[in-house]
Design a protein that fits this description.
By secondary structure, this protein is of the alpha/beta class. It is built from 8 helices and 14 strands. Strands 2-7-6-5-4 form a 5-stranded mixed sheet, with helices on both faces. It has a 5-stranded mixed barrel with strand order 8-9-14-11-10.
Length: 246
């Protein structure tokens, strides 16, 4: 993904991050285009030259206490300068009580404000995991992915060469299916490839001459898993008498 709508972010993380919307929903249509986070302490103090406004803004104890220390006029002036920028959204941590002007001014600017009981450190950790996953490069490949003795084996090759049949044979021998036919590969930090299936196909397999098989129902939950790190690619090729095979 190159962007995430704020509304999608709220829906995805509402339970895990324990966030609640503190103003009107009009700002949920804005887009998040960066996985990095920002604390706008200097921006609130008036230094806007290096303000990375196009990221999720985190207001922790320091930012909230600073705003409370200002007079009503100075606080409003500080927030007006910040809301001139196209901020994706704001998150207030530690269930801090917001300055009374903040939700109303955010509504005028079309910016969503969320509140969470998590500390700034906890929120940053959880939110970074979510954004890293969402913004990680990904690709869909026609293959089968099986967890064999803890190793993720990705079977590739032309259509009809036998990828699904091999995957089924491995499942029958006690190994675990991650996905058949369609595998989404996501490159996370340190160039690690994580493979998972689609929500639509789940753990179904189509075997030629047999039909569609529900692996979870046939072999039980121990025969399937949701995702697995890909460590080995096994490319299936057509046999050729002219080729030397090791």
């Amino acid at each position: 993904m190159d962007k995430i709508q704020v509304g999608t972010f709220f829906q995805d993380t509402q339970s895990r991050l324990k966030i609640r919307l503190a103003n009107s929903p009009r700002g949920l249509v804005r887009d998040i285009i960066h996985k990095d986070l920002h604390r706008p302490g200097l921006a609130l103090a008036g230094f806007l030259e290096l303000f990375t406004y196009d990221r999720i803004q985190i207001l922790g104890n320091t930012e909230i206490r600073y705003l409370r220390s200002l007079s009503d006029f100075a606080r409003k002036e500080s927030l007006e300068k910040v809301f001139r920028f196209q901020i994706p959204c704001l998150i207030v941590t530690n269930s801090n009580e917001m300055p009374p002007e903040l939700p109303a001014m955010a509504d005028v600017a079309g910016v969503s404000i969320f509140s969470t009981p998590h500390s700034t450190t906890e929120l940053t950790h959880l939110l970074s995991d979510y954004l890293d996953h969402k913004f990680a490069p990904s690709q869909i490949v026609h293959s089968s992915l099986v967890d064999v003795y803890g190793t993720g084996l990705l079977f590739t090759g032309r259509s009809g060469i036998g990828k699904s049949e091999i995957a089924l044979d491995l499942v029958e021998r006690g190994h675990r299916l991650v996905s058949d036919d369609v595998v989404t590969l996501t490159r996370t930090a340190d160039n690690v490839l994580i493979g998972h299936g689609s929500e639509l196909l789940k753990h179904f397999m189509e075997i030629r001459g047999v039909g569609i098989i529900d692996i979870g129902r046939m072999f039980g939950v121990r025969a399937i898993r949701q995702q697995k790190r890909v460590e080995t690619e096994v490319e299936l090729v057509d046999w050729s008498d002219e080729q030397n095979y090791e």
